[in-house]
Amino acid sequence: MKIHEYQAKELFQAYGIPAPGGEVATTPEEAVAAAERIGLPVVLKAQVHVGGRGKAGGVKVVTAASEVAPTAEAILGLTIKDLPVRKLLVTPASTIEKEVYLSILLDREVRKVAFIGCAVGGVDIETTAKETPEQILRLDMSAADLQNPPRDRLHAFAQDLFPDPGQADQTVEIMAKMARLFTEKDCSLIEINPLILDGDGQVVALDAKVLLDDNALFRHPDIDALRDMDSEDGDELDAKAQGLSFIRLDGTIGCMVNGAGLAMATMDTIKHFGGSPANFLDVGGSSDPRKVVAAFNLILKDPNVKVILINIFGGITRCDDIAQGILDALEQRDVPVPIVVRLIGTNEEEGRRLLEGTQLTPAETLEQGATIATKLAATGGTK
Amino acid sequence: MSILINKNSEVIVQGITGRDGSFHAQQMIEYGTNIVGGVTPGKGGQTILDRPVFNSVAEAVDATGADVSVMYVPAKFAKAAIIDAAQSTISLLVVITEGIPTLDVLEGYEALQAKGIRMIGPNCPGLITPGASKVGIMPGSIHAPGRVGVVSRSGTLTYEIVKALTDAGIGQSTCIGIGGDPVIGSKFIDILTLFEEDAETDAVVMVGEIGGQDEVKAAEFFQSHMSKPVIGFLAGLTAPPGRRMGHAGAIVGGEDDTADAKRARLEAAGIPVAPIISEVTPLVKQALGG
């Protein structure tokens, strides 16, 4: 899960990681009031869940009081990579004596948590890692290390970022606190880019990016509450609440599949035969007919859907449960588009029997189903 | 022969008294798997499915001599269960559980590593050596004994491919789902190593997807270390970037973990990639020289 910079900085504050304070504004008037309280110069920063805010004009330093309102208005009018800017962080401008990159992240490839550092700050770390890998510092942490970070190793790492002993000590403190935040809140990334030395000789996090492990949200209701509903698709959240995994796409063939890999392969197969999937939908491992009804409701919210392709390979999921769900959905609501069904595996006979006499189009294989659905979608999907 | 499990494998089920654990224990017994007992902390001394229940994996191993454990414990209790397994002398732990917090997996994995215990999963369907032993949740009936290994990050998609192989008369040595999470105990390379060494595997089908670099690493490994043919299939060619496609690990993060990028790397290494499921079987036949 992503959270905004201002929320990440609140977590920093709670864990004692130094970061400039600030206020959130949703209108130019609020930004002006915040800037008056904070004192000029200030930085206005768009709060959106994408990188590259600076390049898109979403981060501006303001030195004159008269410029706060128009600058805030301009940023609040931006749409950065399809996301409209709804909130600003108003924060005091800092004097930057030096800037570096520092993060702690989960590295899935080596199955370790690692601190990553770079003596050049404000950079795109992925580009740096590719082009000049020798500039990247790395310190692997075992699960035991995370519980009790080894100070000597942190210090050696910090010294490569800030050779000055006092500054290195400050950095070690920050790293130890990052490790604690990382484990206690189940993060997958904490990134400070840049971490700066300010005019007062203090090492400070000027930016903050925190990603959290979705699998661990059940034990962090406080973190789950930070979710920005405006930045998320309501249907996708709805689906999650009902035990479905759903992502809306822009095609015409609605998909209902059991299993994430098969759901992706179903979309790919549709594309292979010239069609276009309207969504990714995994009904999951269990086979509650109510999930099937919920899946129909989600798919049919999209007016572009011309046909629905149901592809079930029964294992834990029972084909007769899916068939019952289809019958329930047809009874409970109008389904204005044709349905192509392919059921195979556990209880497929029972499932097919249940669907006998309905208007559904049966398919023997995924590829046959995808071909039929593509043809139906191309002819407008009339029943 | 086969890899990791065979008809002599003695298997215990962690979470055997739970709904999923007892259901799948029954299914595995029906398939012929040698289930020798189960573990549920606090329920030691009970009996379920005519098998003894123990409080810990170590106790179960002492009493039964089990060498494999398969875990159906809910995500919240998974870390404790993995660490319990790490206190025993089993050689293989198969974690079926979905949705375990990643840091819990990491901690459990380190504990298993320290004892030299191999982990398959989490968030996986398990593994099966057809006709001998099934340790997982896959429908046994679609498999047939034979000489093609299957390794996959997915569940139902693997069933599709296995069924296509079986329908075409191509049996399998062992089929393994390694799991859809970002951190897993055994990666493609680990399993390819075992298949390469297995005298009764002639070729391998590798089913990958978007996210991570495991397929690319597997392609490099294939080029430098394998003599047996590998056939690829990749899910997620149409997946939009930055979106988690069901599996926690299935997210396109950059340019090099898309299905297209992986296909290019696999093909460059000499692993043909089937664009649709029905083209897997012909590629396998071709690789086997028939």
Can you tell me about this structure?
The complex is a heterodimer of chains A (383) and B (290). By secondary structure, chain A is α+β, with helices and mostly antiparallel strands. Chain A folds into 3 domains: 72 residues, Dna Ligase, domain 1; 129 residues, ATP-grasp fold, B domain (D-amino Acid Aminotransferase, Chain A, domain 1, 2-Layer Sandwich), CATH 3.30.470; 144 residues, Rossmann fold. Helix content of chain A is 39%, strand content 24%. In chain A, strands 7, 8, 9, 10, 11 and 12 form a 6-stranded antiparallel sheet that branches. Chain A starts with a helix and ends in a 5-residue tail after the last helix. Chain B folds into 2 domains: 111 residues, Rossmann fold, CATH 3.40.50; 149 residues, Rossmann fold, CATH 3.40.50.261.
Task: Provide the descriptors you would attach to this structure in a database record.
A: 383 residues; alpha+beta; D-amino Acid Aminotransferase, Chain A, domain 1; Rossmann fold; 4-stranded antiparallel beta sheet; 14 helices; 18 strands; 39% helix; elongated; B: 290 residues; alpha/beta; 9 helices; 34% helix
